[in-house]
Amino acid sequence: MIFKLATALTFGVFAVLFVLLALWIGKFLRPKGRPFAEKDYPYECAERPLMPAWFNYNPRFYIYAIAFIIFDIEVAFIFPVAVVYKKWLEAHLGGLAFMEIAIFSIILFIGLVYLWGKHDLEWIRVMGLWTSKRSEVKSHGQS
Amino acid sequence: MKVIFYVNAFFSLVFALGVLFGKNPLRSALSLLLFFISISLYFFFAGSDYLGFVQIIVYAGGIIVLIAFVIIILGLRRESPDFDISLRSFVGIILLALFALGVLYGMGKSILHFVPQSPYFDTSVAGIGDAIFSRYLLPFEVASILLLVGVVLAFIFAKKEV
Amino acid sequence: MNTLVKSNLASFSYFVPELLVIIGILALIILELVFKKETKRKFATLFTLATLIIGFIAVIGVGMPKNHQFLFNRMLVYDGVAYYFRILFFLSTFFIVLLSYISVEISEKEYTETMILMLSLLVMMDLLASSFNMLMLYLSLEGVSLLSYILTANKRGDVRAAEAGLKYTIYGGVASGVMLFGFSLLYGLTGSLDLTAIMKNLSGQYGALIFVAAILIIVGFGYKIAAVPFHQWSPDVYEGAPTPVTAFLSIGPKAAGFAILARFFYNVFSNGTAPLKFFPWLLIFWLLSVATMLVGNYAAINQNNLKRLLAYSSIAHAGYMLMGMTFVGHLGLRAIFFYLFAYFIMNLGAFAVVSFMVNKTGSEEIGDYLGLGRTEPLVAVAFTIFLLSLTGIPPTVGFIGKFYLLIGVIFKGGFLYYLLAFIAVFFTVISLFYYARVLKRMYLDPVEELKEVGFGMYEKAYVSVLAIPVIILGIYWQPLMHLIQKALESSVF
Questions:
Q1: Cα separation of A75 and A72, whole Å?
Q2: pLDDT digit string, tens, across residues C85-115
Q3: What is the largest CA-CA distance in chain C?
C-alpha cells in the first residue's frame, strides 16, 4: 500500500515539475519587452471582452466545446480498454481487441473529419454584424 | 487511509467554499476544478476506480473547460459577492445545516458500515475494460455512433440561424 | 471470456443489414464534404437509396430465423418480430427519403445531413426493436430520441421548428430520465439487465416497488409512442418539423416504440402466457388506451392545420393499438403488428399528400384543399383512400387492422374488454367526422375559381404506389397476417 502511494506521489511531483519546466523554457522563447495593451486582458489570445455580458455571442465556440467533450468521452471509453489490452494480447485475442477499439476510434475520427471539412475548426469566421468589429480587432492586433 | 480521507474531505470543503466566495469568476472555476478532483478521490476510496477516472476526465477535464470558455467569452468581470446576512438567509443557513446533520446522521448509521461494491459487476478499471471487449461490445460501438451523431448535432445547432 | 468473444463474432452474420447501413452512413459523411453544391441533392439521395436497397437485400438474405437467436451476448435478440420490424423500418425509410427528395422544406444546405440522420435513425430503430438488455434498450432509445430532436429542429431559419425541437428535447430528456429511474429500480431489485433474468428474479415481495418501476418505464415508452398523458410534445413537433420528418416520426419511432413496449412488457412482466400475478397489466394499459383514444380524437376535431390534425389522429391511433396490449397473448400482438404496417402505409400516404401540398402551395391549412377533387383528381382520390383507411372503413387496410384489434379484445371477454371495444368503435365514428371534413373541403364545398396545383408524375406515382396496397391489403391481407403469425411463432414473446 505504502509503496503504491509513494509511486503515485512521485508521479504527481514529476507532473508538477514538468509544468514548471515548460513554463521556464518558455521564458527563453517568448519576446521580451514592454507588455502592450492586450497584455492586460485576462486572455490576450482569445475572444476580447467587448461589451457587457448581455449580448449575442458567436456560437462557434460551442462546436469546439462540444467536440472537445465528445472526444473527452472517447478517452473515458478507451482508457479502461488500454488497461486490459495486455491481458488480451496474452490470450491471443489482441488482433480482435485492436479491431474493436480501431472501429470505435475510426467512427469518431470521421466526426472530426466532418467538422474539419466543413471548415468549422477555423476560429474567426465573419458573421453578419460582427464583421466590422472583428476586422477592427484584427488590425489592432497587428499594429 | 483514514487520515487521507479526512484531509481530502477538508480540502473539498475548502474548494467548494472557494467556488462560492471567489471574487473572480475564473478563480471560482478553478476552485471547482480542484473540487472535482477531490471528489474523484472519494470514488477511489469507494473502490470504483473507473468512476474516479471518469470524474477527472469528463468533469475536471471537459466540463471545467466548458465553464472556463464561457467565462472568457462572456467577458471577465470582477464580481463583488453581495452577501447580506438578512434574517431570511440566516434561517436558510440554519435549515441547511440541520438537513446536512440529518443526512450525516443517517449515513453514519447505515451507509458507513457498508462497503459500496456492486454485488453484480466488477467495477474496477480492468473489469470494465474486459466487459467492453466482451460482453458489452455492441453497446460500446453503438456509443461511438451516438457520439458521432453528437458531433453532427453540435455542428447543425451551432450553425443554425433563427 | 472466450465464449463471450465467440458469441460476438458469431452474431455478425445476423447483423449484416445494420452494418451495411452504418458503412453507408460513414461514407455519406465523408462524401458530403466532396459533393458539389449543385448536384449534392441528387447524389446524396441516390447514395442513400442504394444503401437502403443493399441493406434491404441483406435483410431478406438474413431472413426469418427458425428459432430466435441471441446476438452479442444477449444484448439483442434476432427473431421473427425483429425481422418483421426490420422490413418495416427499411421500407418506411426508403419512402421517406423519396419524399424528402422533392420537399421544399429541406433545403440544400441541410439535405445531406438529413439523409445521414435518417439512416442513423433507421439503425437505432432496428436496434431498439430487437434490444433484449436494458443497457442496449436505453442506448438505442436515446439514439432514436436524439436523432428525432435533430431532424425536428433541422430546418434553417424557422422559429416553429426551433421551438418544436426545444420542446421535444426538454420533454424527451425528462421522460428518458424518469424511465432510467424505473430501470435502476428494476436493476436494484433483480441485479440484472437482461430481460429474461429480470423476470426470473422479480418476486411478489416487492410488488409495490415493481409497480412503481413499471409506471416509470411506461413514461419513457409512452412518450415514444405518444400515448396520453405523455403526448403533449407531439402536436407541436409534428407541426414544426419538416413534413417528411413528421411522417417519419409518426411511422418509424412510433413503431419502434410499440415493438419495444411489447417486447419489454411481455418478457419482464409476463411469463409469455399470462401477466405476473402482482402486476395489474389490464388496469394500466386499459386506462392508457382509453385516455389516448379520448384525447387524440377529441382534440383532432377542431384542428384546421392538417399536420396538427394528423398529429392528434396519430395519438388516437396509438390508443387503438394500445388495445392490443391490454391482455397477454399472440392475438393482441399480431393485431398491433398488423396495425403498425397498415398505419405505415396509410399515414405515410396522408403525410405525402400534405407534403406535396406544402411544396406546391406552402400551406398546411385544410381550407387550402378546396377543390382539389377537381384540379387533381388522382391525388385527391388517393388522399380519400388514405383518410378512409385511417378512419377504418372497408375495404381498406385500416379496417382490417381495427378489426383484428377489436377481435382480440372481444375474444378475451369480460366486461372491461367489451367496454373497451365499444369505446374504440365509438371513437372511430367520431374520427370519421374530422377526416370527412377534409374530404368535404376537397369535393363538396363550392369553388369559385379553380387554382391549379400542378402535381407532376413523381407525386402522382408516389401516392399511387401507396394507395394501391391500402386497397389490396384491405381485400387480400392474409399473406401479411401469415407473415406476422410466422414471425410471432419464432419470437421470444
A1: 5
A2: 999 999 999 999 999 999 999 888 889 889 9
A3: 77
Entry pTM: 0.84
Is C136's CB within 8 Å of B138's CB? yes
Residue C185 Cα to chain centre, angstroms: 28
Confirm whether C103 is domain-assigned.
Answer: no
CB C463 within 8 A of CB C349: yes
Is A120 within 8 Å of C35 (Cβ atoms)?
no
Cβ atoms within 10 Å of C3's Cβ, excluding its own: 9
Indicate the burial class of A43 (C-beta count within 10 angstroms; 0-12, 13-18, 19 or more).
Answer: middle
Question: Chain B within 8 Å of A45 (Cβ-Cβ)?
Answer: no
Q: Assess B59–A contact: CB distance below 8 Å, yes or no.
A: no
User: How far off is chain C from A113, nearest CA to CA, in Å?
Assistant: 8
ipTM rounded to 2 decimals:
0.84
CB contact under 8 A, A87 and B130: yes
* Cβ–Cβ gap A87/B69 under 8 Å: no
> Does residue C455 fall inside a structural domain?
yes
CB C453 within 8 A of CB C361: yes
Does the beta-carbon distance from B151 to A84 stay under 8 Å?
A: no
What is the CA angle A17-A18-A24, rounded to 5?
Answer: 85
Beta bridge partners of C112: none
Nearest to C26 among A91, A110, A118 (CB): A110
Q: Is residue B83 part of a domain?
A: no
pLDDT digit string, tens, across residues B102-161: 777 766 555 444 445 556 677 778 888 888 888 888 998 998 888 888 777 777 767 655
CA C207 to chain centre: 32
Q: Where does the pLDDT of residue A129 fall: very low under 50, low under 70, confident under 90, or very high at 90 and above?
A: very low
How many domains does chain A fold into?
1
Task: Answer whether residue B129 is part of any domain.
Answer: yes
Contact C154, C113 (CB under 8 A): yes
Q: Which of A105, A44, B156 is nearest to C110 (CA)?
A: B156
> How many structural domains comprise chain B?
2
Cα separation, C25 vs C32, in Å, equals 10
Query: With 60 as the cut, is the pLDDT of residue C31 above it?
Result: yes
Choice among A71-80, C190-199, C374-383 with the minimum mean pLDDT: A71-80
Identify the CA nearest to C441 among candidates C357, C342, C349: C357
Give chain C's domain count: 1
DSSP C305: B
DSSP bridge partners of C131: C76
Give the HSE-up count for residue C484: Cα atoms under 13 Å, Cβ half-sphere. Answer: 23
